[in-house]
Amino acid sequence: MLKQPFKSFLIFTPLLSLLSCSKEKEIIINNSSIELTFDNRVANEDFNINKTYNIDGKNYTFDSFRYWISNIKLEAQDGSWYEIPDAYYLIEETGEVTVQDGQYTYPANKRETIVLNNIPKNNYKSISFAVGVDEKRNNNLSDAIGELSTMKGMTNVSWMWHTSYIFSSIKGIVVDKTSKVLKIETGLNENYRTITVKKDINLTTKGKEIIKFDGDVVTILQAVDSWNNPAVAASTPELMEKVAEAFKNNFFKLK
C-alpha cells in the first residue's frame, strides 16, 4: 500500500514535463522578431568616419556620430501599443572613446542594426521610437537598463546638470580656408524627441520583419548652420533644440 502513491507520482511527473515542454514551445512559436536598421548617410553617400565630405561647399571629416534610440513601441491594428522592454540602444560609428579621464577606453564600433526579439505575433500599423533618454533615467545615471551605461562615453559630467546622458553627438573637423572643431551634442530633457512612423508590420504569418531607415547627417548640420555654430552644447540650448527638432522631423526616412 505504501508503494501505490509513489507509482502514481512517477506516472504524473512525465505528464507534467510533457505539458511544460509544450508550453515552452508555444512561447517560442508565438513570438517573432524585428530587425531595425538605421543607415546613417551624408546626403546620398554612406556615412563613414575619417572620410571627407563636401557639404554646402565646405569639407567635413567626422570622428564620430552617436545617438540613443529608446522606448520603442509598436501600434497594433486595434490601436493598442506593445512596448519593447528595456529598449535603450546606442546607434554609432566611432573611433575609440576615452572614459573616466582615460582610465577606460571604449572600443571603436560601428552599429546600425537593432534586433528586437520575442515580439507577440500580431499585425502592427506603426512603429514609435525616441531619440535620447527619457527624463526618469536621464536624471539618474544609476538607474541604467538596456544598454545605458556611463562606460560608453555618452555622459558628460562637465555639463551644468552633471547627471545626464548625451542624447546625440557629432564630432569632427570642418574646413573652409580655415578649420574649425565640430562638436554638436544634445542632452537636455527638453531635447528628448519621439518619432512615430506609419508602417505595416505583419508578424502574424511572418517570423521576422526587416525595417530600414535612412538617417541624413546633413539635416542636423544645416539645422544649426554648423559652419557658424560648430559647437552646440548646454551653453546654447536654443541650438540643441534645433538639433532635436531636426532628428524628429527631417533626419529619418523610411526606406
Describe this structure in words.
The chain is of the alpha+beta class. It has helices at residues 3-29, 135-138, 217-224, 237-251, and strands at 31-42, 45-46, 52-55, 58-76, 81-83, 88-94, 97-99, 104-106, 109-111, 113-120, 123-131, 168-176, 178-186, 193-202, 208-216, 231-232, 252-254. Strands 3, 4, 5, 6, 9, 11, 12, 13, 14 and 16 form a ten-stranded mixed sheet that branches. Strands 1, 2, 10, 15 and 17 form a five-stranded mixed sheet that branches. The chain has a two-stranded antiparallel sheet with strand order 7-8. Helix 3 runs antiparallel to helix 4. The longest helix is centred in the N-terminal third of the chain and has 27 residues, at 3-29. The chain is globular, with a radius of gyration of 23 Å.
Described by strand count, sense and barrel closure, the largest sheet is:
10 strands, mixed
Question: How much helix, percentage-wise, in residues?
Answer: 10-25%
Please give the radius of gyration in angstroms: 23 Å
Instruction: Note the run of SSEs as H and E.
Output: HEEEEEEEEEEEHEEEEHEHE
N/C terminus separation: 72 Å
Strand content: over 45%
- Structural class of the secondary elements? alpha+beta
Mean pLDDT: 88
Brief synopsis:
The chain is α+β, with helices and mostly antiparallel strands and 255 residues long.
